[in-house]
Every structure is written in C-alpha cells, then in structure tokens.
C-alpha cells in the first residue's frame, strides 16, 4: 500500500549524525569494542523505561511554522503536568530532532507511540535552548516555550523528521536524571518546491441531520413545521456549519453539499414553525438562517460543488437491506433528481450530481450497483476498501469493475487525520503536523511522478475539527510539494495502470459499519407511507401541497444521519406515517344509525365529509346491500355514485332502494379511488324493511271511512237538536208578545221602537236568527288520492 511506501532520496539522518558525534575520535578502539559488546536493553528494561516516561504529561500546544524553510525559527510551546505522586526536581524541557522518516507507515507507527525508548528516540539537541524547572509538585503544571533556528535543527535534506519534546528530571525516590515525559510530532521540511507536485483534492462537506417534519401550516405558503430548532445552533456564529462556511470560503476545497440542508435553511429563512408538544410555535431564527445562506452563496460563487442525493441517503443500507423492498431504488432516483434543482434554486449555481459517497468510502458490488443506479457514475471510495498492493500511493481515480464506473479512492490516513476530539489544542496541533507529514511523504515516494490524491474527511465535522482541517490546508498554502485541484478534475486524471480496479467482495465489508446500517424495517415503512401517499394524492384537487412535503420526508427517512439512532429514526418514520393517515381520515363517511324502510321503494342517503383545506375529486361511493334478494340498489346488489366535495364541506349521496321481502338488511358504504382502490374504512349500518301490503291498506281505508261516517252522523244529530231548540224558543217568544199586546191595548207605539224590535228579531233580513255552527273537531280531508307513503326513519 501507499502507506508503506519508502521515501526516496534520503540521506544521513540527525540521529545518525548525533551518534557519530557521541563517538569521538578520542575514544580508542578497545573502548569502542567495549561499547559494541555492551548488552542491549532487555524488553523488561524497555517496558520500565516507557512506564517511567509517562510520569509527566507533555502537551505540545503550538508549533510554528508548521512547515519551516531555511531562515525560519521553529517555536514550540506547551505545558508539562506532573501526573505522579512525587515531586519532580531539577527538571529540564528540551527538544529532540530525528530521525527522518523513511515511509508513511513509519510516520503512522511513531504517532501511535507513547512512552520514551532510548533505542529509538534521539538525544536532545546540542546547544539548543532548554527550559529549567527546579520543582514540580504532584498534580502541578508548568508552561514552556522553546525557539530554535532551523539552521540548528540539523535538517540537511527534504523529508519528514521526528520532533520530540521531553522532560528529564529526578524524583524523591530516584535521585538521578530520567526521561519522565515525552511527546512526539513531525516536522515536514521541504525548503524548495518540488518539480512534480502532488495534486490534492480536499472535500468540504456541508451535511446535517433531518430537522423538518412532514407537517405544514394551513396557510397558503404551507409554512414548514420543524421537529426542533436545534439546527439554529449550528448556523449561529461559532456554530459547526457557520465555521464550515467561514473557513471554507478561503480554502481550496470542493464543496460537497446535501441539498436537504439547503432546503431546510431556506425554509427557515422564509419563516417556519417548530413543534412544541401538540402545538406549533413560530421559529425564532429566521435572521440566523438568512445570514448563513447569504454567506454560503458568496463562498461558493465560482467554485466547484458536488450535490449528493437529497437527504444524503445511506447507500450501503439501501444495497444490503433495502433494495429488495419494492420501490426503494425509486426513492434514490427521486432524491438524485431533486438534488440539482434544490442547489440551483437556493445557491444559484450548477452542481455536479455525478458522485455518490458511501459511508466511509466502503464499497462492495451491491453498493456500487445501487450507488450508480440513479445516474451517478463516479463513486467516492477509500483506500482501506479498494486496496492497492503497491509500494507507493497511486492516483485516486481508476475504472472500477467493468469499467463503466469511475472510483475516486480517497487516502485513508489523510481522510481520518482529523477524527476524534480536536477541542484540545494539543490534539489539533499533532493532527495538523501528521497530516502535513503524510502529504509530503506521498510526494517523496516517487518525486519524478505526479499523482493525484483525494481527501474525504468525516461527513459531519465538528467546529473544532473544521478549524483543524483549515489549519492543515493553510499549512499547504505555500504549495511546495502539493497543489489543489477540484474533485471533477481529480476524477478525470489518467489512472495509474497498476492501481487496483477490483471491487471488494461483500464479505470484506466492515462489520462495524454493517452493524450500524438502517434496518430493513426502514424501507418497509417507507413503502407503506409511499403507497398511502399515492392513494391519497389522486383524490386531491391540489396534490402538490401534499406530495412535496411528504416526498421529502420519505427521502429523509433513509438518510445516513440516522446511523446509530435507531429509536429516533423509528419515531420520525412513525410520525410521518401517522400524520399522513390523519390527513387521509379527513375524508370520511359520517356514521349512520340504523334505518327503517316502509314501502317498496325509498331513498337512502349517505354523507361524505371533507375536513381538508382543499377539495377532493375522483372518489366513488359504493353502497352494498348485504341481501340483494331482500333489498336492491339500482336493480342490483350495489350502487355507485361519484363524489366531489369542496374544502371543509360535506356531501349527501342518495341511493334509490327497492324492497322485495320484509326483514333486516346489513348495508356497507365504502369509498374508492378512480382506479378501484378502497379509500379509508368502510361504514356499516342496518336497514329494516317493513313493507305495507294491500290487505293492510284496505283495513286502514275501512277504518278511515268509518271515522268519517261517524263524524257526519254526529254532525247531523247536533244540527237537528239545535233546530228543535230554536223552534221552541220562537214559539215561546210569540206567546209572550201576544200577551203583552193584549195588556197594552189602546196604547200608542213609537215607530222607532217598533222598528228596533223587528231588527232584533230577524237579524236584519227578515229571517229568524240561527245559532252559529259548532267548529268541527277534525281537519278537512283532501279529495286527492294519498301518496305511496314512503318513509326513511333515522
């Protein structure tokens, strides 16, 4: 592998020069022979030596310049801390330089070494400045700073040198000088530019986790609803994503962007809401989102951008667990097609969508097949997956498999150089120096051959990791042994004919990565949600208001960011599906109580309610009779009626029914889409058929007739009684008048009085006054024939 390659053109190292200086000409041959015959340190002695050298923690916090040249002064500063239980006295902090590294693997080995070893670590520099510490109590620390001109470091040739800072001193139980602590790093030394510089491509990823739910507000803008407001912390000054943009704008990098992140921040900038229990509250970080987007748009102008598929789908999980679930590959295709549109809309630049990036660059045949299925013909792999059995680091690009796919194989050591905690200054400093050392070592492997190297760091760098990466890239800014190119150019470089083009088998896929893949249930849930969405959208008059937010949410369900978060991923998927089901239930049949059907025919109404904020169409309501012989609908067992309802309204659909036999009939109402797919849950109720026969009608008619005749007879009798009473009263009145006339014979009568008497007797028309007819106690009957008497009782 390239990491094991030897560095060509190396000469005597400072360690060798130091050894020659210690063996002077004044030492005679017998003494020299005695030295050569002296016993070497035993493994036990080496182990004790290494253990003692961990008494003091030496923290190397700064090294400047990171890649010195002639005329520079190297300054190293840091802190020494006594981790032991005894006080340290007469201590000295000094520098140790050499030997020069001869391979990339040696650099890697030295970086992993912790304790001091006298047989491999160089002696302190002669006549170099030191820092004296007279007393250092247990648990106490002291700062140090050492500055040495490059000319005194013994850096005679270009190469990578080991640089050590050690503390030598005594303890109360051991009254002699020993190395009590040491820290090592690397000093890349290339005073003049090489003729064949390494082409270096550094990916700068802008990727985050999913924050947007499938829900939207009820306004015309469909304001998105966020699961939380955590993304704002990454966008604020000093936040992770803010640092990625502010640092990346001045660096020669290729931006690798998840379009979902852009869509999410753009939604924030245009106004958003956040879940707060069952309520939604306005988002408060609109200005933060606007500021970040403006800064990013300026940073990427004129730069190369690679757009990943929308929401950064987990290609390995899809290949290993999801491709056999119907429709899963379709999600990848939709996510890929959405990528370019999103980037162009938000950033106004044209991205490349030709690249796929499996997790940690690990590939196998199934991953490559899935990664390229949506049109991306270039795969970003890594050298610990696609391995090269070479003595040098080959060019990154090479044909893969059958040659239709280009693999861009990133360098594993460079790509993982900044993982881990970079908050501590010491960790950051050591990582920068090792990165620079490895990059120089690559160039010196074959100085006569120019090669292209790609660095694909961790997907989601922290703010401190981003700062450390930026410091390392600034260390290469002089371009003495490398110069930057973008990813598209790196993929087009002529491949090394000896580089591996074999796709590793599935058995070689790392177990630690396979264990963190998304489960197959993820893709089953996605299919369920997609199927229900497909059934739902065809009945809507404005389907895009539902398809877009739910389609994006489904894409987010297979995001790489869910790795290691199985519980949170399941909750998100369940919330998406539940919200979709809540919407579909907004179109429903209103529950109906049992009915009683009297007569041979009737109308049965069924009500459909639309609680949505848009109209529904292309629905069919089918009413089915549980007993077609007893109760028919439109001459058959079932009947269908089209349904079209405006937003927030209900529609009563009426079915004509005809009864043949008395009894109870179960009825089922079910909505269907235009293609015959059942929509929602069926609604059932019972109809009781109670038919009125001809005999019953005759009995009822006879009863009515008897009632009428009885009424007429009663009316006639009352009239006769009233007439007889009136006749009797008239006769009595005449008798009284006759008697009165006889008693008043010969008396003069007033004409007016006589007239009044006449008017009072006959009512003014000369006829005797009749008492008023009594009001009938029954209503008048119509002469028209009665109706059929159909009735549907609820």
Automatic annotation (TrEMBL):
It holds the Pfam family DUF6049. The keyword Transit peptide does not apply. Coiled coil: none annotated. Residues 729-754 have a biased composition (Acidic residues). Residues 105-120 have a biased composition (Basic and acidic residues). It comes from Streptomyces narbonensis. The keyword Transmembrane helix applies. This is DUF6049 family protein. The chain crosses the membrane at residues 692-715. Keywords: Membrane, Transmembrane, Transmembrane helix. Residues 103-126, 726-794 are annotated as: Disordered. InterPro entries: DUF6049, Ig-like_fold.
